[in-house]
Amino acid sequence: MLNHEDFRFDTAEREGDTVGEIAYRRIRLHIVNGRLKPDEKLKLDHMKQVYGASVTTLREILNRLAVEELVAAEGQRGFRVAGVSDAELAALAELRILLETYALRRSIERGDLDWETRVVAAHYKLSSLEGMLMRDQSAAVEQWVASDWGFHYATISACDLPVLARTHASVFDRFARYHMLALDFRGKPAAKEHADLRDLVIGRKADAAVNLLSSHVRSGAAHITASGRFG
Q1: Where are the alpha helices (H) located in 10-140, listed in sequence order?
Q2: How far apart are CA 200 and CA 208, in angstroms?
Q3: What are the strands of the beta sheet with 79-81, ordered from one edge?
Q4: pLDDT per residue as tens digits for the range 71-126
Q5: Of 15, 60, 117, 177, which sits 20 to 30 A from 88 (CA to CA)?
Q6: Coil, helix or strand for 231?
Q7: The CATH number of 4-81 is which of 3.30.300.30, 3.40.50.1820, 3.30.565.10, 1.10.10.10?
Q8: How far apart are CA 104 and CA 154, in angstroms?
């Protein structure tokens, strides 16, 4: 089973965490949730006060995030938050589809009753938040993004390929960043697609599930692109 701890939308401290690891998770989350804006200059002296880490540690963190393409290194000029564009969003959507559909097929083949239970439970939580959002409770968008991850993670959690899991999680993170910046939920169509995907996954209908997942991701990207914010 894949490890849900490989990817987190929270900054909860865990036993044995170093100052650097805590700061890394906080900075990463603040980029994904839009608190740190695209192209924002990352000033080390200010970040030292906010995140409680030394300048040396912060440089290491920002270089690590640059490898993940959440931060851009500018040589002697320092670091900034990675920019956004419709072209990158489209590329992330296709990469997510490539990774997630493979993992989904493998999970459908290998998943047991416990896996099915995780899928149903994760969908229940997600659908509850989707109901809130459809009643215009926009404050729940960040919770929805985390629960959207939780559901999609659950569907592929029987894949049992940790390297694939980590790569997919990183791509999902960058894709989710666009949702958080747009602060927009696609509404009833997205909720229905999630419910249909749950049923297809539990029913072990791999071809139909993969086709629905692919169109679901592309529709989400198209909805964000239509906002006109990232051209």
Answers
A1: 19-32, 44-51, 55-67, 86-110, 113-134
A2: 7
A3: 41-42, 79-81, 71-73
A4: 999 877 899 999 999 999 999 999 999 999 999 999 999 999 999 999 999 999 99
A5: 60
A6: coil
A7: 1.10.10.10
A8: 10
Rounded Cα gap, residues 15 and 58, in angstroms: 21
Beta strands at 71-73 and 41-42: parallel, antiparallel or unpaired: unpaired
Q: Which two tokens stand for residue 22?
A: 């805590």
DSSP annotation of 37? P
pLDDT tens digits for range 157-181: 999 999 999 999 999 999 999 988 8
Which of 130, 111, 159, 146 lies closest to 33, judged by CA?
146
Position 6 scores a pLDDT of 39
The structure tokens listed for 127 are 């659908």
Structure confidence at residue 1 (pLDDT): 37
Joined tokens for residue 163: 């390297």
Q: How far apart are CA 194 and CA 123, in angstroms?
A: 7
| 5 phi/psi in degrees, rounded to 5 | -70, -10
- The token duo for 9 is 């939308």
Is pTM beyond 0.70? Reply is yes
Q: Three-state secondary structure along 131-167? A: HHHHCCCHHHHHHHHHHHHHHHHHHHCCCCCHHHHHH
Q: How far apart are CA 176 and CA 56, in angstroms?
A: 29
Q: Answer whether CATH 3.40.50.2300 is correct for domain 86-226.
A: no
Query: Domains of the chain: which residue ranges?
Result: 4-81, 86-226
The token pair that represents 145 in the structure block: 């993004």
